[in-house]
Request: fold
Amino acid sequence: MGPVKELLAPYLPILKWVGIGLLAYLGVIQLSLTAWAYQDIRARSESVLWRLLAPLVVFFTSVLGALVYSLLRPKEKLADTYARTLEKAYIMQDIEERPVCPSCQRGVEPDFVLCPYCHTSLKKKCPVCGRLMDLTWQMCPYCGQ
Reply:
């Protein structure tokens, strides 16, 4: 052990600074992984427990914790889930072909005369037969007037 110590003695100050640099580098990686886990879980979950637990696990277990987190994290981001839900709602609305108010764009029933939300006229009565007509029609399809 003595000859090795004598051989390394001139390099000890350099090795000390290399060790400090390596520890600083590992610390930056550790903090970066923790910050990534925190940002990622915020985008994927609204659960307070998940938002606290995920960064703590990554911080205390380093790269292994980041790997475990990446396996256990929710598959979809909240924004993607919300966009998919909206898309499904729009598709269902198209399938149902439910009429909407031309003013406020809310759904209305086919036999409504007024929009219950913004009070816009949706239909008009034929002056001859009294049946309801669409506002865009020029002639009544029921009586021909």
Observations:
- The first helix runs from residue 2 to 8.
- The chain has a mean pLDDT of 90.
- The chain is about 60% helix and 5% strand.
